[in-house]
Design brief:
The complex is a heterodimer of chains A (112) and B (113). With 112 residues, chain A is mostly beta strands. Chain A is built from no helices and eleven strands. In chain B, the strands form two sheets. In chain B, strands 2, 4, 5, 9, 10 and 11 form a six-stranded mixed beta sheet that branches. A five-stranded antiparallel beta sheet of chain B has the order 1-3-8-7-6, with no helix packed on it. The chains are: A mainly beta (112), B mainly beta (113).
Chain lengths: 112, 113
C-alpha cells in the first residue's frame, strides 16, 4: 500500500506547455508539501497546505499553482514551462506542520 | 544561501564499521533536526530526529548527536550494513511558525562488503 503516491513518475514536455503533477496520500495526514530537487540535488520547499489551507508559499514563480481539492490530495499545475523547471518534484505529507514528513517517489520533469 | 551544509558529497565505509555523516547549519533559529535516507528513484525516508533540548537521540543502530554551540550535528550508524548504502540528507527547521524543512545537499554513503 503506497502511502504517498505521485503521477506521473516521468514527464517529458516542451517549453511553453502546461502540465500537472498529482499527489495523493492515504495516511490521513493534514499537511502536504511540494518540494523541488534541482540539478545540484538540493531539496527546496515550494508550497505547504494544512487542512487544505496554504501555509507556506516560498518564492516560486506564479506559473506554479498548487491545488488541494481535499486533505488527501495536493496537485501541482505548471503553466508555460521553461527549461529551468526541469527537476525532480517531490510531494510529502505529515500529520501536522511540525511532524516528520513522508515523501512520495518523485516526478522527474524534463522540459525540452 | 545554504543554511544547511553537508560538506562531504560521498563516504565509503566497510561493512560492520561505524559510519559518521556530518551536517552544519548557520541559522541559530533552527531547533529541530532530522535525517532522511534516500534510495535511487525513491523519495526520502525519515530516519531519526532530534530537538535542540537534547544532545543525543538513539534508535537502534542510528544515533544523532547535536552540538548547538558548534551548530553541528552528526549521524552515526553502527554497525554499518550494505542496505545502508544510500544518500543521506540532513534537514533543519524552526518549531516556531510554519515548519519549513531546509535540507542539505546530501551525502552518498557506500558500504563495502
Amino acid at each position: 500500500d503506497t502511502a504517498v503516491s505521485q503521477t506521473p513518475k516521468y514527464l517529458v514536455t516542451q517549453m511553453g506547455n502546461d502540465k500537472s503533477i498529482k499527489c495523493e496520500q492515504n495516511l490521513g495526514h493534514d499537511t502536504m508539501y511540494w518540494y523541488k530537487q534541482d540539478s545540484k540535488k538540493f531539496l527546496k520547499i515550494m508550497f505547504s497546505y494544512n487542512n487544505k489551507e496554504l501555509i507556506i508559499n516560498e518564492t516560486v514563480p506564479n506559473r506554479f499553482s498548487p491545488k488541494s481539492p481535499d486533505k488527501a490530495h495536493l496537485n501541482l499545475h505548471i503553466n508555460s514551462l521553461e527549461l529551468g523547471d526541469s527537476a525532480v518534484y517531490f510531494c510529502a505529507s505529515a500529520q501536522g506542520p511540525w511532524n516528520e514528513q513522508y515523501f512520495g517517489p518523485g516526478t522527474r520533469l524534463t522540459v525540452t | 544561501d545554504q543554511q544547511v551544509k553537508q560538506n562531504s558529497p560521498s563516504l565509503s565505509v566497510q561493512e560492520g564499521r561505524i559510519s559518521i555523516l556530518n551536517c552544519d547549519y548557520t541559522n541559530s533559529m533552527f531547533d529541530y533536526f532530522l535525517w532522511y535516507k534516500k534510495y535511487p528513484a525513491e523519495g526520502p525516508t525519515f530516519l531519526i530526529s532530534i530537538s535542540s533540548i537534547k544532545d543525543k537521540n538513539e534508535d537502534g543502530r542510528f544515533t544523532v548527536f547535536l552540538n548547538k554551540s558548534a551548530k553541528h550535528l552528526s549521524l552515526h550508524i553502527v554497525p554499518s550494513q550494505p542496505g545502508d548504502s544510500a544518500v543521506y540528507f540532513c534537514a533543519a527547521s524552526a518549531l516556531q511558525g510554519a515548519q519549513k524543512l531546509v535540507f542539505g545537499q546530501g551525502t552518498r554513503l557506500t558500504i563495502n562488503p
